[in-house]
Design a protein that fits this description.
The complex is a heterodimer of chains A (284) and B (202). By secondary structure, chain A is an alpha/beta fold. Chain A has helices at residues 15-24, 43-54, 56-62, 76-79, 87-95, 113-128, 142-156, 173-179, 195-205, 225-235, 240-256, and strands spanning 3-5, 26-32, 67-72, 100-107, 133-136, 163-166, 182-186, 210-213. Chain A has one domain (3-256): TIM Barrel, CATH 3.20.20.140. An eight-stranded parallel sheet of chain A has the order 1-2-3-4-5-6-7-8, sandwiched between helices. Chain B is mainly alpha-helical and 202 residues long. Chain B folds into two domains: 1-104, no CATH class; 110-202, no CATH class. Chain B has 13 helices and no strands. The chains are: A alpha/beta (284), B mainly alpha (202). At the A-B interface, helix 2 and helix 5 of A face helix 3 of B.
Chain lengths: 284, 202
Amino acid sequence: MRIFDPHIHMTSRTTNDYQAMYDAGVRAIVEPAFWLGQPRTSVGSFVDYFDGLIGWEPFRAAQFGIRHHCTIALNPKEANDPRCVEVLDVLPRYLAKDGVVAVGEVGYDSMTPEEDRVFAAQLQLAVEHELPVLVHTPHRDKLAGTLRTLDVVRESGIPPERVVIDHLNEVTVEAVRDSGCWMAFSIYPMTKMTEQRMVRILLDHGIERMLVNSAADWGRSDPLKTRRTADAMLAAGFSASEVDTVVWRNPVAFYGQSGRLELDEVDVDELATFEGNSIRRGGA
Amino acid sequence: MNMAAIALQARLSDDAERWLATAVNAIKADARTVRALFPAAARKCGRGPLQSDELPGWTVDEAARVVLLDALPADALSAEIGELYRYGDAAEKRAVLRGLDLLPLGAGGLPIVRDALRTNDARLVTAAMGPYSAKELDPHAYRHGVLKCVFMGIPLADIAGLDRRVDDELIAMLRSFAAERAAAGRSIPTDVTRLLPLPLEF
């Protein structure tokens, strides 16, 4: 089974996770820029983080045979901090990079006027740079936040097929399906969405424009949730080809709209270094 | 015409050639457009070897990127190059380093060279010790650049201008390096021993 995890924060994960992901079939991932738990207080912190997303992290992933891409944006949580908003000025440089396949995560956290402004500005950047957009939906007041998100997307003029709305559930899926945007679901060990509920949603709404991700990060999460969902789909009677559509062909079709996906097999060079640093420990 | 542009002739597809010509015009009209065009050059023009005798070891994307830098107006050149290097990924940084020698920068590219020589990325350090550094680096920095290459296992043949710039102090530094290696029971790269005029006795 080949798996493309379209949303996972590998910066927060270990080499053991990379190995387990490869063993489970993961061959390609997208790491969206998001907040780091600890708030950043300057533009420089973002720039160093973005450099990691296009430099060190793809190098680390390649050591495990996994193709790494990223999305770049000012996330909604930190859009509310005036010290961080100037990040918008450096985004165009990063949105032009080879490894950057979308603008994201953008969207709403607390639905403030600052978030409105930053969200709209970044949708325009996506139009200018001909990139798809990954939109995060808020944890609190999710339905209202999702509906408002769809309004803002519509007003921006960006084609809905270039937008994915993430962290959906049974309550929010229908409005997004009707909008023409892609639908993404983060499968978590305890909150948000389980693989069994996900299978039920796929039975009810079909597999077209559907993405499944682990959204694994520094919180309680599981980088193998994509595989577990695929297994649950097979157990529920979906064919191998239908599973492949959800966990591989759909994310490839969505992020492929950037024209920047690299999906040929990684030639693993275990002696390689990135800027002189390696992931080997002890041996060399 | 810039050497990189000459070397690129017959190495680009029609589409890539058109893209590059349009990009050059855009940069001449507005220097700021280089900020998005420079990172895009590899996926638009290709990443294969350049196969040029004049620019040995170069790739197509490096040459294309240098053509873009060459299109920058003189008053914007230094500032734009500094920022392209600062925000560049490894391939972009290397292209900037490669291009220093082909651009009218004078000593203005030295801060970029010094940054690259502080890294531990062999691709950047090698590019930093190219023809530009052979001309512009002061003797102290040049000697330390050579030593850094030796420590990183970069062949001395990849360093530009070594025949011309080697001096007694560099020889003394290399002898001392060789002595330390010998004391540790480790081998000394043959290209280093060949450079040392006296037989080595420790």
